[in-house]
Amino acid sequence: PWFGIFSFDSSELPIVTVYAMYIPLFVRYMMIAKDEGIFKRFVFPVLAIVGCLFMVYASFAAYGIKTVGIYLLVFAVIMGIGNFFNMRKK
Predict the structure, then answer these.
(1) What tens digit of pLDDT does each residue of 17-59 get?
(2) Torsion angles phi and psi, residue 35, rounded to 5
(3) Cα(67)–Cα(36) distance, rounded to whole angstroms?
């Protein structure tokens, strides 16, 4: 690989990060959607969370914990830099 330990798939791993970020959204939906029926409030979000967890597991299974960990580290650093500049604007 050309970039050593930074050789991760830049098209698949970010999508898995989005799937991981969906989980708190589904949990929050289950908490606030009191006027919905049992299927829309609990069953469908739980199935969506199971699907998201499967995608996260699949990324670890396909790329290994080292590659996904390095990707998450790079992701966290970039998000931290963006947060720093965003806080400076306020």
Answers:
(1) 899 899 999 999 999 999 999 999 999 999 999 999 999 899 8
(2) -90, 0
(3) 41
Q: Which residues of 8-18 are buried (b: 16+ CB within 10 A; e: fewer)?
A: beeeebeebee
Quick count: other Cβ atoms within 10 Å of Cβ 59?
A: 22
Global pTM value: 0.75
> How many Å apart are CA 54 and CA 19, to the nearest integer?
10
Q: What is the 3-state secondary structure (H, E, C) of 9-76?
A: CCCCHHHHHHHHHHHHHHHHHHHHCCCCCHHHHHHHHHHHHHHHHHHHHHHHHHHHHHHHHHHHHHHH
Half-sphere exposure of 8 (CA within 13 A, CB side): 24
CA-CA distance, 65 to 2, in Å (whole number)? 20
